[in-house]
Amino acid sequence: MSRTVYCSFLKKDADGLDFQLYPGDLGKRIFDNISKEAWGQWQHKQTMLINEKKLNMMDPEHRKLLETEMVNFLFEGKDIVIDGYTPPSE
């Protein structure tokens, strides 16, 4: 059964995540306030960030950077700026 959350990213009710995908208080905040759709958008950005910045997920500094970007993207309304990436023009 799907659950509905008010997605603070999309600013509307949407399908919530099936389970908490991120640890700790931040994970709970994401679970309670972020939809599957918004999480999917973040996953896409995250992949681009990891590739662009050649992040190593074993490195605590790199994980911290990614977490900061995730919070900025999901909760602060800041788009991720990826150096050298040009979004496809409409």
Automatic annotation (TrEMBL):
Q: Which Gene3D superfamilies match?
A: Fe(II) trafficking protein YggX (1.10.3880.10)
- State a single Gene Ontology molecular function: iron ion binding
Question: Signal peptide: which range, if any?
Answer: none
Q: Does the keyword Ribosomal protein apply?
A: no
Q: Name one Pfam family in it.
A: Iron_traffic
Sorted alphabetically, the keyword list is: Iron
Going by the entry's taxonomy, the superkingdom of the source organism is recorded as: Bacteria
| GO BP annotations, alphabetical order | cellular response to oxidative stress
**Gene Ontology CC: one annotated term:** cytosol
Q: Which NCBIfam families match?
A: PRK05408.1
The record's section on HAMAP family has: Fe_traffic_YggX
Q: What is the annotated role of this protein in its UniProt record?
A: Could be a mediator in iron transactions between iron acquisition and iron-requiring processes, such as synthesis and/or repair of Fe-S clusters in biosynthetic enzymes. Necessary to maintain high levels of aconitase under oxidative stress.
Q: Which family does it belong to?
A: Belongs to the Fe(2+)-trafficking protein family.
Protein name, entry field:
Probable Fe(2+)-trafficking protein
